[in-house]
TrEMBL record:
Pfam families listed in its UniProt record: DUF6481
Record region (Disordered): 76-109
This protein's name: DUF6481 family protein
Regions of compositional bias (Basic and acidic residues) in chain numbering: 90-101
Native source organism of the sequence: Novosphingobium cyanobacteriorum
InterPro entries found in the cross-reference section: DUF6481
Biased segments, Low complexity type: 76-89
Length: 109
């Protein structure tokens, strides 16, 4: 039995040329695309792109509306919080702080 023979440069080059010619022959044998079929495919793709764009636009509008609603609710909550609890004067805050301090000291005794 003969030993394995490493293919030389010419062998590899000829194999590459043959493979390239075979691939080109396969492409040339392919039937041409019918213009009507191509136009239909392009129309389907365009319709799909338009539908996706409309869906993205609807999602963007819904997202903006949700953000606006959330901002409005935050404003209303802030206004309700501000109006529900009147601001304490300096003297009232000092009296509350002193009361907490006295209660803490009383618990320690």
């Amino acid at each position: 039995m003969a030993a394995y023979k490493e293919p030389g440069l010419n062998d590899r080059r000829n194999a590459a040329i043959a493979a390239r010619e075979k691939a080109l022959a396969k492409l040339k044998a392919k039937p041409p695309v019918d213009p009507a079929v191509e136009a239909e495919r392009i129309a389907r793709e365009k319709a799909r792109e338009e539908a996706a764009a409309a869906k993205r636009e609807a999602a963007r509008i819904a997202r903006e509306e949700a953000q606006a609603l959330k901002a409005q609710q935050a404003e209303e909550a802030a206004a309700a919080k501000a109006s529900a609890k009147p601001a304490l004067s300096e003297a009232e805050r000092k009296a509350l702080r002193d009361a907490r301090y006295a209660a803490r000291k009383a618990r320690k005794k």
